[in-house]
């Protein structure tokens, strides 16, 4: 089961600017106005956003989004 140390990471250089992530998880992702590429708004989204982030990961045509446990706990300084 996931915990509060889950983190969103992207490989922006591979982003194809489809906007699927923004449509599926608008509180977590946005798009750069100039390039259309993904912008992460919340690196450590709230638990209620996890399902939407998972869907964005699965739907990303460039497969540039990862959602995995961070090496650093969420409450670390």
Considering the chains and any ligands shown, give keywords for the structure.
single chain, 77 residues, alpha+beta, two-stranded antiparallel ribbon, 2 helices, 4 strands, 19% helix, globular
Give a description of the structure.
- The chain is an alpha+beta fold and 77 residues long.
- Helices cover 19% and strands 21% of the residues.
- The chain is built from two helices and four strands; from the N terminus they run βαββαβ.
- The chain has helices spanning 20-24, 50-59; strands at 6-10, 29-31, 38-40, 65-69.
- It has a two-stranded antiparallel sheet. Strands 2-3 form a two-stranded antiparallel sheet.
- The chain is globular, with a radius of gyration of 12 Å.
- 17% of the residues are buried.
- The mean pLDDT is 89.
Give the tally of β-strands: 4
Unreliable runs, pLDDT <50, ≥5 residues?
none
* Rg over C-alpha atoms, rounded to the nearest angstrom: 12 Å
Quick check: average pLDDT?
89
H and E string? EHEEHE
Strand order of the largest sheet: 1-4
Q: Provide the structure class.
A: alpha+beta
Q: Which percent bin holds the helix content? A: 10-25%
Question: What spatial form do the alpha-carbon principal axes imply?
Answer: globular
Question: For the report, how would you describe the main beta sheet?
Answer: 2 strands, antiparallel
Number of distinct helices:
2
